[in-house]
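Exercise 7.
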Amino acid sequence: MSATLPPQAPPATIGPLKDTLVLDLSRLVSGNVLTHVLADLGATVLKVESPQGGDDLRAWQREGVSTYWAAYSRNKQSIALNLRSAAGMAHLERLLGQAQVLVENFRPGTLEKMGLSPERLQALNPRLVVIRISGYGQTGALAHKPGFGSLVEGLSGFAALNGFPDREPVLPPFAMADSVCGLYGASLAMAWVHHQQQAETPSLKTIDLSLFEPLFGLLGPHAAEYHLTGQVPQRSGSRSPTHAPRNVYQSRDGKWFALSAGMAGTLQRLFEALDLPNALSDPRFATHEARLQHVQALDELLQSRFQTRDLDELMDLFDACDVTAGPILTIADLMQHPQVTSRELLVDVDSPQGVRIPVHGVPHQVNGVRPPIRASAPKLGEHNARWGIPALDDPATP
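Solution. The predicted structure, written as tokens, is:
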């Protein structure tokens, strides 16, 4: 069961960013993830959208409902502005004078073509933090290319590591590069807003954030290891290159679970629970290095024991011997899972189409209380009047 958004949402002053105004000119996932984090923390986020259809994320629908928009634009406000008109740009510049953060993900150079060069933004608001999201950065060999997450997931080295060694590289089934970028960008925005608030002599801060670099950074020590060994890491499925056993296994009733038992003590308890008390003395499994070298044999041994028990039996066994394992769940499982329901991780909100749907709640608690979702995702131009802009259905809307 999901929680329900109160009919009278709490005031927009809840959260540590309650005095922060964010203008979001971005489209699709990366910028929306970034500003959705800021909105969840109390910031006033204005989605600046084209009167012709708005953010492209609105078109990502299922059964006629904008599910992505509902999930990533809760707690935000929407204003519709024609930024190709002088009147629309005048409204935008007025709001930029009040804002603390501007987020955009145009191709490099587009903001300048709009008349919003760093010099102009400095004149409008020297305390402004500008987050410029692009595929590969504002400079560099690929700066001119459009930034699609799927391409970045390939170019970053991630896809080369993802999948099984005898199969093709696998792209993630969700917007991974965009999401990582957005989450990283939210921390940048908060840090630089704090800096600007403390600065005695403020000056515009322009943050060059790409989809490529945060995902590339998640590879961690791979560059160092390649430099030292000359070896290119290979795809290993669900196995880990650092410890074994770590994999997904199947129970007698055909269900899947994940297990990570690389520490010797944990593995000894697992072997004993599976009636294999002497397995750790087997030279193939006696040391960390040996287990990695003979991981196929180790997995086969474990799977032969796992397939004699149903999943519930295995979970009870793992709990009893303090072994780190858990079931592989689908969204259908999670909708009713006690961890999700007891912590009210799903909240019912209204979609712009008027259909109530569950979305993920704010993913943290403060002093034992989860911050509320203050408002459902806005309709296009819903807040124009609030910000002194003609209504969307007004023929004179700039």
